[in-house]
Write a structure and sequence with these properties.
The protein is mainly alpha-helical. About 45% of the residues lie in helices and about 5% in strands. Helix 3 (about 55-65) packs across helix 4 (about 75-85). It is globular. This is lysozyme. Belongs to the glycosyl hydrolase 22 family. One of its GO terms (molecular function) is lysozyme activity.
Length: about 180
């Protein structure tokens, strides 16, 4: 095993800094590039574990997590919302025109609700966006619960407003045994 003493490590560090400065990049820029590479890696790892739920399977999971009637939102509305946002895909990602990104089965936005290292300003759910790209959906459900506590409620989701609001959504849980 090759080990470097402190003087060799210092030389290597200064060599990296010199190379970076020759290409016009500062230590801050190099650290930011490393963070971005780490985020891309995490997103790829999360993508490898993505799951697409079947409608009734998803409805049962939401019900078990207390989503039926949460903040006045019916289970059928939650299923309708996620059908139109992600087609029940935990790995869904959508890049928006404003530079933000929507993540996961609920398509939670990086500007307001999670931190993607680029566009997050508020991070209302206090989570990294990569946590929303997992087949373990507890974090996504907790964040969705947080979102509907705001004055907009479920209307915060465009897909719900466009496809579910004011409609008979009972078919989204029909045949699921409720």
């Amino acid at each position: 095993m090759l080990t470097l003493d402190n003087s060799q490590q210092d030389v290597n560090k200064w060599s990296r800094r010199l190379c970076a400065s020759e290409f016009g990049r500062t230590d801050f820029q190099l650290k930011r590039e490393q963070k971005m590479k780490s985020l891309v890696f995490l997103l790829l790892v999360a993508g490898a574990s993505a799951k697409v739920f079947e409608r009734c399977q998803w409805a049962r999971l939401l019900k078990a997590q207390g989503m039926d009637g949460y903040r006045g939102v019916s289970l059928a509305n939650w299923v309708c919302l996620t059908q139109h946002e992600s087609r029940f895909n935990t790995n869904a990602i959508n890049h928006n025109r404003d530079g933000s990104t929507d993540y996961g089965i609920f398509q939670i936005n990086s500007y307001w609700w999670c931190d993607d290292g680029k566009t997050g300003r508020v991070n209302g759910c206090k989570i990294p966006c990569s946590a929303l790209l997992s087949d373990s959906v507890g974090t996504a459900i907790a964040c969705a619960k947080r979102i509907v506590q705001d004055p907009s409620g479920i209307a915060a989701w465009v897909a719900w407003r466009d496809h579910c609001r004011g409609r008979d959504v009972s078919s989204y849980i029909q045949g699921c045994g409720f």
